[in-house]
Every structure is written in structure tokens, then in C-alpha cells.
Amino acid sequence: MNASTATPASVAHVRAYLTGLQDAITSALEAVEGEGGGRFLADAWHKGPEERLQGEGITRIMEGGRVFERAGCGFSHVRGAQLPPSATQHRPELAGAPFEAMGVSLVFHPRNPYVPTVHMNVRMISAGHPGREPTRWFGGGLDLTPCYGFEEDAVQFHRSCRDALEPFGHELYPRFKTWCDEYFFLKHRNEQRGVGGIFFDDFCELAPEQSFAMLRAVGDSLLKAYLPIVARRKDMAYGEREIEFQRYRRGRYVEFNLVWDRGTHFGLQSGGRTESILLSMPPHACWSYQREDAPGTPEAALTRDFLVRRDWL
Known about the structure:
By secondary structure, this protein is α+β, with helices and mostly antiparallel strands. Helix content is 37%, strand content 25%. A hairpin with a 6-residue loop joins β4 (99-110) and β5.
């Protein structure tokens, strides 16, 4: 998407883009699964006026696929009478204001432990007190969480992130990359969740149309960043050792989502649809007490070489 594209950042235009993005991404994953592979089930939902949060959405979920053990991609458009605390940390003047929020959020958990998990979220929030012009801002990003690290995968993923942001300012990729490293960090473990990517929130410093164009560039970069990695890794041989390590690393993923993730907190605090909010969870995860992997193993290399803050470019 070109930086000069001036599509209006209206609620209707943003919604049309997001629903189209959900269609494109889920169709691409079904193509990866191939004939006879996994397919997404569409679960349309609605929250009426009797609910604390009103709105609608479509949750698309694939489980038990040949390539993806679990893949969730949800669209939601909700409205509420009062912004939850997680959304007003940086905007205290909007505390208590009515709002509407829409976005696409996805997490893909592959079957093969050598294929990394990917997460993406792109969203817009509009809020304002009655009689005042609403404030509209954007957020999102994408990040990669491998169980087994490959430098070429991390480098390619970060190059795609940089290329998506480059038309909007040379400073955005390093800034959003740092933000991602700081956000996807398990403070209680002193450990990065993965190899990072980009993350931004409360973003409206460009003109509204340019901010929306940047959001589209980020959303459109997901397939270009991730599918080549899937193609390289999905047919690699693996056994019980790799599956056990994958489930151990997925436990860390669960910890982050439940303890630190603002998106999870926003959804639960605002009365969102719990089933859709938690579609990011892996189908299987486990925990080990004070696990230590032997030096020189690929499992130990993940922590030493990949779960650290690095300049991948």
C-alpha cells in the first residue's frame, strides 16, 4: 500500500478494509492446507443492547489442520458506554467516554514445531465525550514466536516489517521494533516472548488518512512475512522431543497472554466475547519446573540466541 493513498479513515472505510483482510488471510491459509486440509469455521456473533458491550463480529477458527494445529482470525466491531482502564492509560482526558473499537486479531499455532507461531493485530479505536469531536487512533503489529530458531526466518520477518513501514518514515521501524521488544516481554521470566517484529499503540501522529494507510500496510504485510517461512519449515522431520519442547514453549505464550497482554485485558474488562478473546490460546501447552536444556542443543540455543533483543537487520 502506497503512503500517498488517501482513503478516508472513516469507520465505514476501516471496517471494509478489516473484513476484507480477514477474508484474504483465511483464504491464504486454506490454500496452504491444500485439498483435504483444514478449513476455517465462521462463527458470527452479536451483542445486543442488553449487553455491557454492543456490536458484532466474525470469529474464524481452524483446528486439526495438516499444517496448522490451531489458527484463529477474528474480526470485531464493538461499542461501549465507557472506555475500560486499559485504554485510557495514555489518554486520561477520555476516561469514562463512550467508544467504538474494531480490529482483526489472529494467532496461528502450526503443527510442526519448526514452524513458528505468528500473531498479528490491527485495530482502530474512536472515543469522545458527547458534544466533542471524537479522538481516533490506531494500533497493532505483528510478531514471530519460534520454538526452534532460524536466523534467516527472523531476518526475513523483520525485513518485511521494515518494508511495510518505510514509506511512512524511516524512523518508524526501529521505533516500533523497540516497542515490540519491550511489549512482548515476560517480566516475571525476564525473557522475550519470541524474536519480535513491530508493535504500535495509540497512534495518530500522522494525518488520519496516512495513519490508516500505515495500518493497511502493516496488515497487508502479514502473508508476505510469514508464508515463506511456513513453506520452508512445514515439511521438516520432527519427533516426540520437538513436540514436548513446543508444548513447553507454548506455556510461555499462555503466560504472556493472560498476565501481560493489554488486548486480552481490554477485551475482558470491557465485556467482550470471551471465546473470541481467547482464540489465541494453543491447543496443547505444558509447564516444567526449573527446566534447563543442555548446552549445545537447539533448545538451549533458542533462549541464548533468539529470545534476546537483537538487531535482526
